[in-house]
């Protein structure tokens, strides 16, 4: 491996990622994600398959302008019995608004015999004709060799002839696909080396799936063997177990292996943002433990460990967190000591003397509350409020008088069984006493709606606040229905900021209210500081 070697990055999130169970991109989603990928510095952005569905048709009809990336369409080689120029699929690709086309074709003799049911020589003609037409009409063609590793293991000579047919027809990249994700890294490396003896590595790409949890490792193995282009998706989206995760591959290639990519140091610092933006578009909770970009990727727990981290971060962090747009997190928990608290205070901007007696009080309070069931290592916002309240920095933006939640399960006029929740809440907001009633999809939603209905006229900053995740854990399962529960709520302000709060009680609604109260208070504290606005202010 030589410093400065160029690796090209090909993102397939908008096509392969759309095959993830539960993921459904809108045209607006595709436009936003494509722009983020372009700003990041990705070389190729594959937009989808023109003609496959209305979403892709609309996207390719008016694609976004990309400054760095080559906008690419996906399709397949011509069908048997049709010329390339008259194949409907290829006509759609050549007329699509794109700069390149990535085309998938068969390279496993078993599929040619059984799925296509044509002579093997004819399959070679399909590949040649299709690639040649795309090169002629669009200028750049890529060939995805479907099930290549299975095909090579079964019949290496024929699989290689398929690759050479595409390469000799003018394909810029020959992409070796581990379509079912079953190949292991040592196999990938040896097979890619064998291919690189016939086709230069500067024309070889790798496309892996994660069915054995080896997609990233397989991609790196292919690059070690000579491949110079890698395909993958943001956050490893993809069908079944997903595709190779570009968010892990990019910093590994650049920071660990010394390869050059189209991503600059400034672009690399956008990586965490891009990863979380995708989750935000999909309304998915980000993986806290994701390498490089997860909230826990550079989290440290335990007093002795934290002291060492502060003295020598490089001993405990394999890269500097800021290089990938992430940050160090000092976790506070029942294992915490003064070092944890002091480090966490600095992180959230609290200036306090290390000898301040209140630190010992806060350490004891954190340990006592975690013994009662609170978990501050996963609820950073609640910890910050706890600390700042202990230092007298958090005002009472509102004070609860009482709340009542009613659930009703009944048959409606259409003879449908429905469940309705209604919450009534009484609050003191400033000098005013406010009572509101709201219905919701469940008691927590009704309570949340009633709370914000009362507070929005005074605090417009709550306009974009919404709950994005809600988790309940039973802490004392042996107590049956009397068990103590812990509720974790994740919230967003509509501007890409997320925070997590926690509430504990033997009553799940009470625990939910505690977490909701912290969530709203945290948003208001971040927006207003220690002040309280009048009803006309807009503090967003």
UniProtKB/TrEMBL annotation:
Tell me one GO molecular function of this protein.
2-isopropylmalate synthase activity
Q: Which PROSITE patterns match?
A: AIPM_HOMOCIT_SYNTH_1, PYR_CT
Name the enzyme's class: transferase
Q: From the UniProt record, give the pathway where this protein acts.
A: Amino-acid biosynthesis; L-isoleucine biosynthesis; 2-oxobutanoate from pyruvate: step 1/3
| Family annotation (CDD domains) | DRE_TIM_LeuA3 (cd07941)
EC number, UniProt record:
2.3.3.21
SUPFAM superfamilies recorded:
2-isopropylmalate synthase LeuA, allosteric (dimerisation) domain, Aldolase
Similarity comment: Belongs to the alpha-IPM synthase/homocitrate synthase family.
Name assigned to this protein: Citramalate synthase
Source organism (scientific name): Skermanella aerolata
The upper taxonomy is: Bacteria, Pseudomonadati, Pseudomonadota, Alphaproteobacteria, Rhodospirillales
